[in-house]
Records
---
Amino acid sequence: MGALDRDWARKDGPPAPPHAPRQSQSREPQWARTMQPPPPRFGGSRPPRPRRPSPKRKLRWGTAVVVAVVAALYLPSLLSENDDFPPTLPFSSSSDAPPPGVGASDTPLGVPPDVGYSDEFVLIEPPDPSQDFIAYDPCRPVHYVVRPEDAPDGTDGLIEAAVAEISEATGLQFVNDGTTSEGPSPDRDSYQPEVYGERWAPVLFAWTNEEETPGLEGSMVALASSEYAEVPGEPAVYVTGQVKLDAEDVTGWLEGPEGRYEVKGLIMHELGHVVGLDHIEDRDQLMHATAPVYEIQDGDRAGLALVGTGPCVPEL
Ligand SMILES: [Zn+2]
């Protein structure tokens, strides 16, 4: 699993402190609403690796989040004793992975739009540094479900609207599989055939709280992460993810005149993490950790278009 974090400051809020490196597997956003900067929340971890080193990105090394690494399912070590295995055979009937290629087409289902050049984005570090970046397989849909329990009044349609914008910016085709009763978990299984059938579990959006999701304590408003899987000889790709939204904090946001607009921006920021973007130092970008930016900007657009061109891996 992997998680990212993000601090978002309200327009009337102070700048948030840099992120402390996160401990584990997912990325989360943190929106600072109070006058007190939130304390560092995470333990040690690897800093993200910029795709193209630049002074700005080097600054991010010390402040960023860690990418999640999960899915040890298909690590080469699993095959080291039998190199005759074809790449499609790491899966067995009893494995923790679905049959390969469920829902996969021969070509990408969509293409990202042409965008102008910008390097104002940061890619999540892939598990293998020789891989340019990590992303969802564009040859298959990105399914998602929503746990609607405790959704704040006034949030109808916001997840779908945010998904639509990220879909357009990446070319990734998202499919809404409806609602679920599954709750968020740092140990969420990427394959839950008893719940979702023999395919990778869909991306889970959940309205949650600080008790269920301790990472949302304080001013942290949302968390997001994706999990990857890989087969030997093929690039790692994301197969599922989670977006955890603090219902109480979002309820407070919605009291403002632009609450829905801002919450949609929050969800888009989270989705940016889900599809493979890390935080950027540029405060004009949606993917800045704390800046009050609620729409996709030029750097975000370039990054989203890039992660929409990931490899297709039908072996997964
Ligand atoms: Zn973030």
Note: The two ends are 16 Å apart (CA to CA).
---
Amino acid sequence: MINLHDIRYLRMGTADLESSIKYATDIIGLQLAAREGKAAYFRSDKVAVRGDTRDFSLMLFEGDPTDHTIGLDLRDPDDLDAVGAVLEDAGHKVHFGTREECDARRTKHFIASHDPSGNKIEIVARPYHSGVRYFPGRDAGIDGFSHIGLFTTDAERDTKFWTKLCNARISDWLGGSPFLRLNTVHHSIVLFPSNRTGIHHINHQVEDLDDVMKSYYFLKANNIRIIHGPGRHPISTAIMVYFEGPDKVTYEYSCGVKHVMPEEEATYRPRQFTLDSYNACMWGSRAAEIAAAAKAPQQEWPARVVV
Ligand SMILES: [Fe+2]
């Protein structure tokens, strides 16, 4: 069993690094922490909320915009060798990071592998924390990078990878999409059935409803495409707004996500929700991807979200 603690970072290629940096800082409200060659590192974590501050939570590099890698943090860094063996035994190729590769990921150690769909994952041991306070250029109210939507070419197979090989638990299903939790947060990874791999959307938690609504008007004023919301997900109780970023990546701000506390783990049962639009947003905001997914024969989620 691979005992994961949390999602740690994303590494993503971008076609235009300079404009992506500008978007990440001026629109999303991340802090540019470092630039190294053709890569940029961004921070997002408020210590008072997370209890720690990751050295970075998003790394963008000049390259293929479909090249996405998920960093995951282990509960016990001493497990790393055993994790490599578990993955290899299950037929997943494993690469132990070189010193140079570890430095580029701000960690003492890591191993690289893939989920069964082929999504690139990196499991880090003793990743670096920062003693410097997160100080963004735009006050979007961000508390921290919190979860991702991840495309899967076979949701049932990949659910087994995350829940049997790893310690993820299913919090709920929306149609064929499982919401997977690694700690108390209702979901850190949500799988979206598709014919492609990579990141479906990137979530940052914000402090409260005011931040969601302030950003909604800010995004509209800056001609940023709103994809879904403002609204509230009944599944996780989170209030959210989704919007389109560079390279057609979808970003989300949300607040108020449900937690499943340790004392609830033994009795918690995941719930199955249908893909009806009121299960995506109880306030009535509509996302065409929900409607399209409900009609698709295999509940495939379109790669390109259109409202
Ligand atoms: Fe989300």
Note: The longest strand covers residues 4-14.
---
Amino acid sequence: MIMEQGIVFSPNTIYWIIFIGVAVASWIVSASLEYKFKKYSRVPLRMTGKEVAEKMLRDNGIDDVKVTCTKGHLTDHYNPATQTVNLSESVYNSASVAAAAVAAHECGHAVQHETAYAPLKMRSALVPVVNFAGKWMMWVLLAGMLLLQIFPAVMGIGILLFALTTLFSFITLPVEIDASRRAVAWLDGAGITDAETTPLAKSALRSAAYTYVVAALGSLANLLYYIMIFVGRRD
Ligand SMILES: [Zn+2]
């Protein structure tokens, strides 16, 4: 006998499959990132993260951005408000391929800011909106699910707020990938890394980019799940 009906998953089953899939993918990605950074931290270079950052800023004609040392692990970031490239202690003081890659990546963001790189401007414009959405979306979605049959508009608003945070995580992708591209091109061009170490810097930064890809896909999967509940509410 031929089964006419395929396997039908309920939204909850799909949610758990996605949830576990995203959790496993982000675990693999962060473990591989950690492994690569440890490994490339032991490949020496002649400049520390601080020196690399200062030189990259100078080479790009940026003289109003300061390089500072910040506490913690993987806390490296560029702050456009204070015009600072903040490097974690292990990057700031270390003279390794991993430190140079991170330092140059953060300077890549400073260069994006200086040259008014469009995706970065879009991302910055979305920050206050996303902060607002992030604060309220879970409550609105929860209320929306409870009121789904009598007042579906609440769930619609919740989905809209969630969609804004999903959009933000996707706009983050070109910004991060472009900063890494600028970093690798400069490291190689300025002779900080060579034929042997440039691919290592590239590989470390690619691993870092995957964490943003997984986060964006996870956010999209969640968004689709809520939309599925919303659309299927009359069933
Ligand atoms: Zn970045």
Note: Residues 105, 109, 176, 179 surround zinc ion (CB under 6 Å).
